[in-house]
C-alpha cells in the first residue's frame, strides 16, 4: 500500500535538510546579527530532537502524549521559540499590540507548563496525570492561537502569508500523525515503509514549515532593504533640498552685500566728500559750523568702514582662509596706525584653500577685532603677535601681547566683555582660551572649525 521507502533513510534525509536550514540560520545570524536567526536555528534543532524522542515513545505499548518530561520540555521550548520567531518576523508589537499581549501570555503558559512538568517528574506522578496536564496546557495554547491567527491574517504584511502557510503545514502534519493512532493496522511502523510511521508526517510538516519560514524571512529582508533604500533616497532628497536652501540663502546674502555697497556706500561716500567740500567753501567765515561738519565727515567715514566690514562678512566670495588673513592684517594695521605698538604676523606662507563657514566668519572676525580693541585700550603693550595656523578641519588664531596683563579668574568672575567673546566663539562651535598674568602680557587662542582643508 505504501511505497517501499526505508524509514531510516527518509529520516536521515529530512534530518539533514533541517540541519542544513539550522546551519543556514546560524550563518545568517553571523552576517546580520539579528536574534530571529539564532532563535530560528534553535527551534529547528529542538524539533529534530523531539522527533528522535517521539520515535522512541511511539514504539511503547502504553504510550500517552506528554508523559516523557524530556520530550514535553523540549517541545515547549520549541513553541517558545516559535512564538518569538512570529513576533520578530511579523513585527507584531508594532502592528497589533493585543496579539502581542496574547502571545506573551502564551509564553508564560509554556513556562508554567515546564515548571509543572518538572514538578511531576521529580514527584514521580502517574502517566495519566502527566498526560492530562499536558493536554490541558496544549488546549490553552490552541485557544490563544485561535485568537491570534485571524488577527495576524488581517495585517496583510508580506511575511504573514508565508508564516501562516508554514504553520498550516506543521499543524496538518501533527494532525495526520495523531490520526495514525486510530489505524494501527495500517500505520504499523514497519521500518521498510517510511510512511507507516507517524513521525514521518510530522517531520514532513516541519520541513515544509521551515521552507515557508525561510522564504518569509527572505521576502521580509528584501522588504526591509527596499525600505532602507527608500529612506536613504528621502534623506538624499532632503540633503539636496537643504543644499538648495543654503544656496538660496547665500544668494540673498550676496544680494544684500551688493545692495549695501552699490546703494548706501555711494551715498555715504558722497556725504563725506560734501562735508569736506563745505569746510573749504566756508573760507573761515563759519568757524562755529566747522566742528559739526567735521563730525559729519568723521561719522560718515566710520559708517563706511563698518559697512565695508558688514559687506565683507556677508559676501560668500570672502570665505577663504587667505581672504580672512588679508582682512585680519588690514584691520590690525588700521587700528594700530596711531599707536606705538609694533605688529608681528605669522600667517600661512603658502595658499590655503580651506573655507571658513559663512555663519562662523563674521563672528570670528568680530571676536578678533574686539580683542585688538582691548589691546589698544587696556594692554599698554609695545608688541602684538598675531598668528594663524591651519590644520585639518580647524583654524587656530593666536593673539599675544607683552602688555601689563591682568588676573585671569574663573568664568563667572570675568567681565562682560570676555564672557561675550566666549559666547560668540561658542556660537560657531569654536573654543576660546585666554591666559594672562599681571606684568606678563595676555595670550588669546581661538579655534574655529573649517568647512574643508585642501592645501596646495
From TrEMBL:
<keyword id="KW-1133">Transmembrane helix</keyword>
<dbReference type="InterPro" id="IPR005467">
    <property type="entry name" value="His_kinase_dom"/>
</dbReference>
<feature type="transmembrane region" description="Helical">
    <location>
        <begin position="199"/>
        <end position="219"/>
    </location>
</feature>
<keyword id="KW-0472">Membrane</keyword>
<keyword id="KW-0808">Transferase</keyword>
<dbReference type="GO" id="GO:0000155">
    <property type="term" value="F:phosphorelay sensor kinase activity"/>
</dbReference>
<keyword id="KW-0812">Transmembrane</keyword>
<feature type="transmembrane region" description="Helical">
    <location>
        <begin position="12"/>
        <end position="29"/>
    </location>
</feature>
<dbReference type="InterPro" id="IPR011712">
    <property type="entry name" value="Sig_transdc_His_kin_sub3_dim/P"/>
</dbReference>
<dbReference type="Pfam" id="PF02518">
    <property type="entry name" value="HATPase_c"/>
</dbReference>
<dbReference type="InterPro" id="IPR050482">
    <property type="entry name" value="Sensor_HK_TwoCompSys"/>
</dbReference>
<feature type="transmembrane region" description="Helical">
    <location>
        <begin position="36"/>
        <end position="53"/>
    </location>
</feature>
<feature type="transmembrane region" description="Helical">
    <location>
        <begin position="102"/>
        <end position="123"/>
    </location>
</feature>
<feature type="transmembrane region" description="Helical">
    <location>
        <begin position="135"/>
        <end position="153"/>
    </location>
</feature>
<keyword id="KW-0418">Kinase</keyword>
<protein>
    <recommendedName>
        <fullName>Histidine kinase domain-containing protein</fullName>
    </recommendedName>
</protein>
<feature type="transmembrane region" description="Helical">
    <location>
        <begin position="73"/>
        <end position="90"/>
    </location>
</feature>
<dbReference type="GO" id="GO:0016020">
    <property type="term" value="C:membrane"/>
</dbReference>
<dbReference type="GO" id="GO:0046983">
    <property type="term" value="F:protein dimerization activity"/>
</dbReference>
<dbReference type="InterPro" id="IPR036890">
    <property type="entry name" value="HATPase_C_sf"/>
</dbReference>
<dbReference type="Pfam" id="PF07730">
    <property type="entry name" value="HisKA_3"/>
</dbReference>
<dbReference type="Pfam" id="PF07695">
    <property type="entry name" value="7TMR-DISM_7TM"/>
</dbReference>
<dbReference type="InterPro" id="IPR003594">
    <property type="entry name" value="HATPase_dom"/>
</dbReference>
<feature type="transmembrane region" description="Helical">
    <location>
        <begin position="160"/>
        <end position="179"/>
    </location>
</feature>
<feature type="domain" description="Histidine kinase">
    <location>
        <begin position="255"/>
        <end position="452"/>
    </location>
</feature>
<dbReference type="InterPro" id="IPR011623">
    <property type="entry name" value="7TMR_DISM_rcpt_extracell_dom1"/>
</dbReference>
<keyword id="KW-0902">Two-component regulatory system</keyword>
